[in-house]
Amino acid sequence: MDTVSGPQEQFELITKGLQEVLNPQIIQDVLEKEKRPLKIYWGTAPTGKPHCGYFVPMVKLAHFLKAGCEVTVLLADLHAFLDNMKASLEVVQYRAKYYEFVVKAILRSINVPIDKLKFVVGSSYQQSAPYIMDLFKLSNIVSQNSAKKAGADVVKQVANPLLSGLIYPLMQAIDEEHLGVDAQFGGVDQRKIFVLAEENLPSIGHRKRAHLMNPMVPGLGQGGKMSASDPNSKIDIIEEPKIVKKKINSAYCAPGDINNGLIAFLEYVVQPIHELKTGKDGSFELIIERPEKYGGRITYDSLDQLKKDYEENKLAAPDLKTGVADKINELLAPIRADFEKDEEFQSVQKNGYPVEAPKQEKKVKKVKNKGTGYPGKSSSPADATSEAATATATATADLATVEDKLDGVKLV
Ligand code: STL
After folding, report:
1. Exposure check for the chain: N or C terminus, fewer CB within 10 A?
2. 189 C-alpha to center of ligand 1: Å?
3. 265: Cα within 13 Å, side-chain hemisphere
4. What separation in Å is there between the alpha carbon of 44 and the centre of ligand 1?
5. Domains within the chain, CATH numbers bracketed
6. What is the pLDDT of residues 173-203, one digit of tens each?
7. What is the residue-wise DSSP string for 14-46?
8. Angle at which helices 144-151 and 164-178 pack, to 10 degrees?
9. What is this enzyme's catalytic activity, as reactions (predicted)?
């Protein structure tokens, strides 16, 4: 991948395909007046397993690197912990490492040199005295209401919101200063936090940063939703080719309507990756192995043509699905190969995402005896199928004891 030089060309590549840029002047000044590489970061909270949607920000990281920027990926482990404890502090360390492996593998798979890419784990600096002092200073000038509103699109919204949801956006604002960057990049869902940072960093003695926002890209579910509860709406970065086929087959894709997750994937992932590989703007390729009886292979070299054909029902949904599933499998193959040859990559996945023990309640004999011992004590770990089963059994047993003590009053 050749790098781009000249401030104008660099600025164009840095902002290519974005939905919005706040304070572009900050970026232009760095490139044109200071004549140095732009320092920019992208933060991600290592919670769930990265899915194919991760290709979207990766395309932008590729643009930034190609434009000669100094790019930092923030693995925001404390943010993952603060967001309704989506991950325990122990498990989140493995997830952060797993995310790092995934980001590197994706970038390598699209031929982006990653020697200039920096990874920083949030907890490595977010517990320092100067960082915490900045958090206190910010908490003195940002109202509870503003902090709550800033996090509304990012922090999981629950019935009884925790204080952590107010701390989360403040820390994200302070990260810009403590990572020493000129700009922050993220999805447009981060907009309110970005504005909070711009409005408040100067009041605690820090520079205002530029903000770059990617559009939100629809997933594979109905209405373009990617939902944690619908496993078919997301394709894992390490996914078996057969499962990719199956998930794409069940993707929402109404005939004649180009507003679906499959075409969005072509637009926001396949096309930009093809452009990066060929170095030609607007270049595109999708090969569809249509069954012979329906006319055989189709090759598209224009996304606009594909969209037009789909709208005019010249391209059928099952054929679009075949083409997209094959393309995803092609994109995932080198990432999967990295995973399979790297034991550490596999081990951080295993530790970060332990397979849940089947939710099978171990029957615990209710002991009527109200003596000193408690039933859980007598269950031998050797006959439990896993640690989790032991924990469930113990918990159930403890409950049984409490119920006994309450003399038959049923808990839960
Ligand atoms: C998510 C999902 C997502 C973005 C983020 C988290 C961003 C987190 C973050 C944390 C600290 C920062 C910057 C970004 O300084 O799409 O769960």
Report:
1. C
2. 10
3. 31
4. 4
5. 7-214 (3.40.50.620), 241-352 (1.10.240.10)
6. 999 999 999 999 999 999 999 999 999 999 9
7. HHTT-SEEE-HHHHHIIIIIS-SPPEEEEEE--
8. 80
9. tRNA(Tyr) + L-tyrosine + ATP = L-tyrosyl-tRNA(Tyr) + AMP + diphosphate + H(+)
Q: What is the DSSP letter of 236?
A: B
* Residues near ligand 1 (Cβ within 6 A): 43-45, 47, 74, 76, 79, 172, 175, 187
What's the rounded Cα separation, in Å, for the pair 102 and 75? 12
Measured N-to-C along each axis, helices 164-178 and 191-200 cross at an angle, to the nearest 10 degrees, of: 60
Atom 1 of ligand 1, residue of closest alpha carbon: 45
- Which helix (H) or strand (E) element contains residue 146? helix 144-151
Alpha-carbon distance of 171 to 191, in angstroms, equals: 15
CA of 410 to the centre of ligand 1 (A): 42
Task: Specify the DSSP class assigned to residue 72.
Answer: E
What pLDDT is attached to residue 84? Answer: 78
Element at 397 (helix H, strand E): helix 387-405
Q: Whose CA is nearest to atom 5 of ligand 1?
A: 44
Query: For the chain, first and last CA: distance in Å?
Result: 60
DSSP 8-state symbol, 155: S
pLDDT for position 232? 80
Nearest CA residue ID for atom 14, ligand 1: 43
| 378 CB neighbour count, 10 Å cutoff | 11
